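Recap from last week: sequence in, structure out.
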Amino acid sequence: MRDWVTSYGGYMETVPRGARPPVFLGREARAMLTLASLGGLLGLVASFSRPGREPSVAGSRQPIPLQQICMLVAPFVVAYALILVPRASSTAGILDRYLIGPLAVALPWVVRLYQEQVQPRLPRTALVLVAATAAYSVVVVHNMFSFYRARVNLAAELRSNGVPDTSMDNGWEYNLLTELSHSDHVNDPHIEVPSHAYSPVPPLPAGSCGMWYFDRTPHVRPLYGISFSPNACYGPAPFAPVHYSRWPYRTPGTLYVVRYVPPSQLPHGMP
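Predicted structure tokens:
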């Protein structure tokens, strides 16, 4: 489990640091997922040592051989792997969402292997797994969209009270867009064209709240940030929290605005 199949039910590293989001998958659910994944992997390995089924009678419809399927998908798999090589060598690494492409290729191959090694018809339990995966995907996508809308609503509330986007930390994706609205590029040390585009950024002052990729957004120097806890950093700011829907739970999630600097260091007129 990495970014999307997580205990928080989504890609929650986008939020400002300081508090953990609500738990979506408890310890028991994560244990069941781990056992199911390991069981499926062991079953796949065991199928390779299982003798194949006897060929069907003459005249019946013959399935496509595995060798032909491999020849069909091999160019895509090789090209996809080569594209990921630069990403794997960087500090960002490989994330689970990059496996969507190979999974689209692997699933038909696994189904075909099952038909050859076990039986031509898939068991009904396979439909249960497909339905569970689809249900999880729908729920997580809904929750993430609801979460993103809550962040945008809080940003609008801050702007309506005279706080510009450059003075708020609304997660690294939002901050990168804010940086691009004030500069023609993100301050990324990996940029090679144009040369010398990157400008080193001094570290955050001692006592500052943590901020994702602060060196890539030099125009963003937050006085406020959005957090799952009202007590993060220097405590709650005088802005109303925003709630967002969390399927399948009845209790909604809540985002708060917190101060990133002591109240004495806020500019005059800032709440």
